[in-house]
Design goal:
Elements: H1 2-5, H2 9-15, H3 17-21, H4 27-36, H5 42-92, H6 99-112, E1 118-122, E2 127-131, E3 136-141, E4 151-153, E5 166-169, E6 173-175, E7 184-192, E8 198-199, E9 201-203, E10 210-212, E11 223-224, E12 229-236, E13 244-251, E14 258-264, E15 271-272, E16 276-277, E17 282-287, E18 291-296, E19 302-303, E20 306-309, E21 312-315, E22 320-327, E23 334-343, E24 348-356, E25 362-367, E26 386-389, E27 399-407, E28 413-420, E29 448-451, E30 454-457, E31 462-469, E32 476-485, E33 500-510, E34 516-519, E35 522-530, E36 535-543, E37 549-553, E38 556-557, E39 562-566, E40 569-572, E41 576-585, E42 591-600, E43 607-616, E44 620-622, E45 626-632, E46 638-646, E47 652-658, E48 665-668, E49 671-674, E50 679-686, E51 692-702, E52 708-716, E53 721-723, E54 727-729, E55 738-747, E56 753-757, E57 765-770, E58 773-776, E59 781-790, E60 796-805, E61 812-818, E62 825-828, E63 833-836, E64 849-856, E65 861-869, E66 875-881, H7 896-899, H8 902-908, E67 915-920, E68 923-926, E69 931-940, E70 944-954, E71 960-969, E72 974-975, ...
Parallel strand pairs: 6-14, 16-24, 26-33, 35-43, 45-52, 54-61, 64-71, 73-85, 95-99
Antiparallel strand pairs: 1-2, 2-3, 3-4, 5-7, 7-12, 8-11, 9-13, 10-12, 13-14, 15-17, 17-22, 18-21, 18-23, 19-20, 20-22, 23-24, 25-27, 27-31, 28-30, 28-32, 29-31, 32-33, 34-36, 36-41, 37-40, 37-42, 38-39, 39-41, 42-43, 44-46, 46-50, 47-49, 47-51, 48-50, 51-52, 53-55, 55-59, 56-58, 56-60, 57-59, ...
Helix pairs in contact: 5-6
């Protein structure tokens, strides 16, 4: 195909001219016939095709002949070259540098042997030129073994140059860039360079590749005027990429023709490749011109043992391709073959390829530590050439040996290592191993490694390897390392596998366990250590192993104890020791024997450290070993106190509880926490429910500590008393005469027994017992004297006296037998019963009419006296008070409502005694067995303790005097501005001073106090400041001498008295807001003067006369007169960041009577009236009484301020004014600037202000909180002003929101607004019930019901009053309780109802 595709007929025609020129058919004949075949018939076409086939066959024969000539010339040249080379080598030594020149000379001589070929050597270009006249020439370049095949055309110039007539432009027509199959055109000109017009004739080119068209002349007839040119078009149609040369003959009137050369050539192809190749190398070719190239050797691309690929390739200019040469040697000797590179234009180049086979030769040069031959009798691998032994080591340690292997061949050898199991088979001396015993199994232990495991052995160089031994278990290891070469060809009849084991190295290694030693191997901590107290001990760990060890200590962290080692982890080098610290912390008292584990990395068993330690916790002891309650009655409670002591330095959490479930014994408190070395008291309460011999055990448990057990014992018995004589006989008994007898009580138990004889008497007789009650000791008998009185002359045979013994279900009964004789009247109050049977007898147990200790001044209090006639004989009776009588009114019949009128009360108290007892009915007739209720009503207008007797006379019986006792409390004084207050006598007015400037002048208010009584009353004032955040509850007051001594007009004491000292505050001696403490007055029974008094009173405030003060502090208000006091308020001076302060004060006034004689006739009736707890006053050396009430002072209105800045950012001063509406207001704006202060004085609302450029002004806006703001709550949506809105919260709270704008009016009539907003919380009051019904209540008995009052939103003051009193038939009562507050417009009401009854079934227990 290569020959057919290349047209080299022009080359053959030039060389073998006689063969081509003798034909009658020229080369252009066929071309002309082809071009005209479409015009003629089919015969012409068939003729032209046959003619083309004959020409092609002829050309092929010529080409074959030319190839044979060239092969013969090349063979002859090679033979002559070898002969010349041998001669030159024998004479001139090494002739390598002259090899190319020699080749050129021989080729030249060889070419000269061919006919019609002329050879010329050019020394400047180092090439040979072969040419004939007017024929193409071969150029062979010998530089760098590159073959260039170029085609040129040369024409011999005439011997003499004619004078030119025409000049061609261009002088030579050249085509440079062309390809096969295309037609190229170019224009050239012929210019007449003579002075006359010339005719011209152009003869076309001789080759078929060039053709010329008709010329274009400047004139007619083919004449070219002087200086003018004619133009011709030359066409070029190449059929190959070779070089072309031709010419155009221009005939003119001159002697000779004018020739225009035509050339077509491309840049010659230049290929670069190595002319001598070795095994496994690749040839790379580079082309400088386009063209297909081929490697050929007698038409083959394979020449054993070599093969070249690819055999055909195309290279564009600047491209490169890779030519791969493979070698397949069957032996270890050299081979050489020559391959030829042929271009499409017949340029050729020979390439010599050589290859040499070598045998593998590797050598183990050295081993670090040297090779150690196996010992005698040691089993080793059958095929291994080398033996390497590693020293013993610990598991997971790493040992390395360096191997040096030398490659003794000139080849790169790819390799890899394989670790195989050894072939172990015992052999006799000089015995060869059997092939069946040699097996190849990969080692599975993976303890031997070679690095690098794969790679390439460089030619004739040493390669270093690391043989690594890393054992993992305690055993001996044995393996063989195979060095395997890859891609090694095997000679027949060897197997086709390309991998070869080239070297076998046998390796052995052994392991030994880690050698670790603890010093000491166990830690025993003597004694006991406290829990929660860390204790440390030191120990060491030695590493006697072959390598370092990594340790990790476990940490015992249980719920009770912590045992750990520091450091817990680390590394110990071989033959070194490490210091450790063992820390133990106990959480529970016990003895611990354990082992602490240390994990050694890669060690099969951990190292353990034995630890023994004893912990002890806190110890709590009791002050008694046991508790014996002794004899005790059922359902009676007793208790004892235990002392628990913590004897250690640890906190002790203890629990004292019953070991068994027993409900009759309890411990308070039952648990607690004792600090170190502290003690506490524990109460053990015992309340049995039945008789028994009680024994139990209490267990004291201490958390993580030592407790104890406490035994408890008690003998539970019930009272059992008997009468030694059960019948008492009075053989002689007279009516009204008393007789005595004795009965004996005997206590049969070990418990003291309480007994009492019932005081109710029979209707026909009476009896008294001495003692009437008492305690009967254990196993003790007591004689009781019985006094018996008979009121009739009838014989008494069924009279019995009853004795109740506490703890016994049934009373003891003594039967009395007598013959009684007469009449009996009894008097019954709420507490006692008194009987009267004869005018000569009087019971030693006298009833008392007790009005109580809390009678309110000016209030009516009633008590009942029940008079019972125990006989069937009617008798008149009269009842009246002995001293505080009402003689003027005792004959009037008035009801209870009439008696409560103020005029009636004033008439009753007109005698000036301070109290009066009004009895209704005071006289009447007591019918047979009739009981009459007598109401005794007390009226008072002065406080004090009142005692009297109620004289009761029935028939001819001796009048009975029933003692009356009453303590009146209250304040008779009242302020002019509030008037008398019956329900709240001790409460004064609330003085509100409003809002004042800090540090301002003192503000004073005048208050007038009225004294409506008939006695002069002295007042001592003290003022207190109330702090809402004050957490103090009580004041401990110590008084030396008089609490309030009498002072003169200058404030000096008239009589000497001691100073008052208080451990907390210098406050009043008495309680505030109430009367003098009942408990204190009740405890002062003696009239002996005391110098020192101690009082505990509720804390009301801090005693101070600033900012509130009352003058004068001591004042005497005359009877039926009044006096004025002055209450002053001095505003506080605020400092720092404080901008407001709310002051709340309290004033207490203590009352005292200067003379007791002035209020009652003590000389005539000594002891009838004692005012204001006279016993208490006598204790502090007071001759008259003391009483107190208080006055509360509150400053309520206040302002809340916020501030902002106005800044003038312009370059001109601004004139403006600020405006707001109440409750907002502007407070003192203060201008300021960056460098100076504005000279404008501060101003408020609607004042003109000036703000300088780049200055700022702070403006304060205040919100004024006052009571009128609350009026908006009741207003409708139409009445409420704009900007005010009532907001209801989710939990019932209400707020008032006030919104408006701060208006900034500028002097240019512009307006700027700043939004303002404030929220006011509204307080609310509500009751837990709307009504309370007391139901049926026994007359004279007080009933109490509890109602809760809730406040939401804010703190507030409130007061309550009653109104709408209603009474129906003196038994049904109703009233309305109204609760008012100044902060709430709508009052809260509570309806109260109750019904009185004389039925004792209505009496509450």
């Amino acid at each position: 195909s290569f020959v057919v595709s290349q047209n080299i007929s022009h080359v053959l025609a030039s060389i073998f001219k006689h063969l081509y020129t003798n034909d009658i058919i020229r080369k252009d004949t066929v071309s002309n016939l082809v071009q005209t075949k479409r015009v003629r018939g089919s015969y012409h076409d068939r003729y032209v095709e046959e003619l083309q086939q004959v020409i092609i066959y002829t050309h092929l024969q010529l080409v074959d002949m030319l190839d044979n000539h060239m092969i013969q010339a090349s063979a002859c040249a090679a033979a002559k070259e070898n002969q010349a080379y041998e001669r030159m080598k024998a004479t001139a030594g090494d002739v390598c540098d002259h090899q190319e020149l020699l080749t050129g000379e021989i080729l030249l001589k060889t070419l000269k042997t061919f006919k019609n070929i002329t050879v010329l050597y050019c020394s400047t270009t180092d090439c040979f030129l072969s040419f004939t006249s007017r024929e193409p020439v071969f150029i062979v370049n010998t530089h760098n073994a590159q073959v260039r095949l170029c085609l040129y055309s040369y024409f011999e110039s005439p011997a003499e140059e004619p004078i030119p007539v025409f000049l061609a432009k261009p002088s030579v027509v050249v085509f440079t860039d062309y390809s096969v199959g295309n037609i190229y055109e170019v224009c050239f000109r012929l210019k007449n360079v003579t002075s006359s017009s010339r005719h011209i004739r152009v003869i076309p080119p001789t080759t078929p590749y060039f053709s010329i068209g008709l010329g274009r002349f400047p004139g007619e007839g083919g004449v070219v005027a002087p200086g003018m040119s004619c133009k011709y078009t030359l066409r070029f149609a190449p059929d190959s990429l070779g070089d072309y040369k031709d010419f155009i003959v221009v005939e003119t009137q001159a002697e000779g023709p004018f020739v225009v050369p035509i050339e077509a050539w491309r840049p010659p192809p230049i290929l670069t490749c190595m002319f001598s190749l070795l095994l496994s190398f690749c040839a790379k070719m580079w082309a400088s011109a386009l063209g297909p190239f081929s490697l050929a050797k007698t038409y083959f691309s394979e020449q054993p043992p070599f093969a070249v690929s690819p055999s055909l390739f195309v290279l564009e200019p600047g491209e490169a391709t890779v030519v791969e040469v493979s070698l397949d040697l069957k032996s270890g000797r050299k081979s050489c073959q020559v391959f030829t590179v042929v271009c499409d234009n017949c340029q050729v180049k020979d390439i010599s390829i050589e290859g040499e086979g070598q045998l593998i030769a590797l050598e183990l040069v050295s081993v670090s530590g040297g090779e150690e031959p196996p010992v005698v009798g040691e089993v080793h691998d059958l095929t291994a050439e080398h033996f390497i032994r590693f020293s013993p080591c610990n598991p997971h340690s790493v040992q390395q040996k360096k191997l040096v292997i030398r490659n003794n061949v000139h080849l790169e050898l790819p390799f890899h290592w394989q670790i195989m199991k050894p072939n172990l088979h015992p052999l006799l001396p000089r015995e060869s191993p059997d092939a069946s015993h040699i097996q190849f199994h990969l080692a599975t232990d993976e303890v031997f490694h070679v690095s690098p495991s794969t790679g390439i052995l460089a030619p004739c160089q040493d390669q270093e390897y690391l043989l690594i031994f890393c054992p993992k278990e305690l055993k001996d290891y044995h393996s063989v390392c195979h060095l395997v070469l890859r891609d090694i060809p095997q000679l027949p009849p060897e197997p086709s596998d390309s991998s070869v084991i080239i070297m076998e190295i046998e390796v052995k290694g052994s392991t030994e366990p880690y050698q670790i030693l603890l010093e000491p191997y166990a830690i025993v901590i003597p004694g006991e250590i406290f829990i929660c107290t860390p204790t440390s001990r030191q120990f060491k760990m030695w590493n006697h192993s072959k390598t370092f060890i990594c340790f990790q200590w476990e940490r015992i962290n249980s719920s009770c104890h912590v045992i750990e080692v520091e450091p817990s982890s680390g590394r110990i080098e071989e033959n070194e020791c490490f210091d450790f610290s063992l820390t133990v912390t106990g959480g529970k008292a016990e003895n611990i024997v354990t082992s602490l584990v240390c994990h050694i990395q890669h060690h099969h068993e951990p190292v353990t450290l034995a630890v023994e330690v004893s912990f002890k916790g806190p110890t709590v002891t009791l002050n008694v070993p046991s508790i014996d309650f002794g004899p005790i009655r059922p359902r009676e409670q007793t208790q004892t106190t235990l002392l628990l002591t913590n004897t250690t330095q640890l906190e002790a959490s203890w629990i004292l509880e019953r070991k068994l479930t027993v409900h009759s014994i309890s411990v308070e408190p039952s648990r607690g926490l004792l600090p170190p070395l502290a003690s506490c008291n524990v109460d053990v309460l015992f309340k049995p429910h039945s008789c028994q011999l009680f024994e139990t055990e209490l267990e004291l448990t201490v958390e993580n500590g030592t407790g104890c057990h406490l035994s408890v014992r008690a003998d539970v018995q019930s009272s059992h008393v008997c009468l030694l004589n059960c019948t008492l006989s009075f053989p002689e008994l007279y009516v009204g005469a008393s007789a005595t007898g004795t009965v004996t009580l005997f206590n049969q138990t070990l418990l003291p027994s309480q007994f009492s004889w019932l005081g109710k008497q029979a209707s026909l007789c009476s009896a008294t017992f001495d003692p009437s009650s008492g305690t009967l000791g254990p196993k003790v008998s007591m004689e009781i004297t019985v006094t018996f009185t008979a009121h009739t002359d009838l014989e008494l045979t069924e009279v019995a006296a009853v004795c109740e013994v506490q703890g016994m279900n049934s009373p003891l009964v003594v039967g009395i037998v007598a013959k009684p004789k007469k009449l009996s009247v009894s008097y019954n109050t709420e507490k006692t019963v008194f009987s009267r049977s004869s005018p000569n007898g009087q019971s030693p147990s006298t009833p008392v009419l007790e009005f109580g200790d809390g009678v309110i001044l000016k209030s009516a209090v009633s008590k009942q006296l029940l008079i019972t006639n125990q006989t069937a004989i009617p008798a008149p009776f009269t009842v009246e008070a002995e001293y505080f009588t009402c003689h003027a009114l005792k004959n009037k019949e008035l009801t209870l409502f009439v008696c409560s009128l103020p005029e009636f009360v004033s008439s009753l108290l007109a005698h000036g005694k301070g109290a009066a007892f009004f009895v209704t009915p005071h006289t009447g007739t007591l019918g047979a067995f009739e009981s009459r209720a007598v109401d005794v009503t007390a009226y008072t207008d002065m406080w004090g303790e009142y005692t009297d007797h109620l004289i009761c006379k029935v028939g001819d019986l001796k009048p009975v005097l029933i003692p009356i006792h009453m303590t009146v409390k209250g304040c008779p004084l009242y302020f002019q501005m509030t008037g008398p207050r019956a329900q709240d006598q001790n409460q004064g007015p609330i003085i509100q001073f409003g809002t004042h400037v800090s540090g301002g002048d003192t503000v004073s208010r005048s208050l007038r106090i009225n004294n409506p009584t008939m006695f002069d009353i002295r007042l001592d004032w003290e003022t207190y400041n109330v702090d809402q955040n004050d957490g103090k509850l009580l004041d401990f007051v110590v008084v030396f001498g008089d609490a309030f001594p009498l002072k003169d007009a200058d404030g000096n004491e008239v009589l000497s008295s001691a100073l008052r000292l208080s451990s907390f505050n210098e406050t009043a001696w008495e309680k505030t807001r109430t009367t003098v403490s009942e408990e204190t007055s009740a405890s002062l029974q003696s009239l002996t003067k005391k110098l020192i008094s101690v009082h505990i009173r509720p804390h009301m405030g801090n005693l101070s006369d600033y900012p509130f003060c009352i003058t004068p502090q001591q004042i005497v208000i005359p009877a039926k007169s009044s006096r004025a006091i002055h209450v002053s308020f001095t505003p506080l001076t605020l400092s720092g960041a404080a901008r407001k302060s709310r002051c709340v004060g309290l004033a207490l006034g203590f009352m005292n009577l200067d003379s007791e004689v002035s209020c009652c006739d003590s000389m005539l009736n000594p002891g009838k009236c004692k005012h204001a707890h006279m016993r208490c006053l006598s204790q502090v050396n007071f001759e008259q009484s003391i009483f107190l009430f208080f006055l509360q002072i509150v400053v309520r209105e206040f302002d809340i301020t916020q501030s902002f800045q106005l800044k003038n950012t312009s370059e001109m001063p601004l004139h403006f004014s600020l405006g707001t509406q109440p409750p907002f207001s502007v407070v003192k704006p203060k201008p300021r600037g960056p460098t100076s202060t504005s000279r404008n004085p501060p101003s408020g609302d609607n004042q003109s202000l000036v703000l300088k450029p780049q200055h700022s002004m702070r403006v304060k806006v205040a919100f004024h909180c006052s009571l009128p703001l609350l009026d908006h709550v009741e207003q409708t949506d139409e009445e409420i002003p704009p900007g005010v809105k009532l907001i209801h919260g989710a939990n019932g709270q209400m707020k008032l929101r006030f919104e408006q704008n701060l208006l900034i009016h500028y002097s240019n009539n512009t307006l700027q607004t700043v939004p303002l907003c404030a929220h006011l919380d509204l307080p609310t009051l509500r009751l837990s019930a709307v009504s309370v019904d007391f139901g049926l209540c026994y007359v004279g008995q007080t009933q109490t019901r509890e109602v809760n009052l809730y406040s939401c939103g804010a703190h507030m003051f409130w007061k309550s009053i009653t109104s709408n009193h209603k009474s129906i038939s003196n038994l049904y009562f109703s009233t309305l309780l109204v609760i008012r507050s100044p902060l709430i417009k709508t009052s809260v009401t509570l309806q109260l109802r109750g019904t009185g009854s004389f039925d004792e079934m209505s009496r509450s227990s």
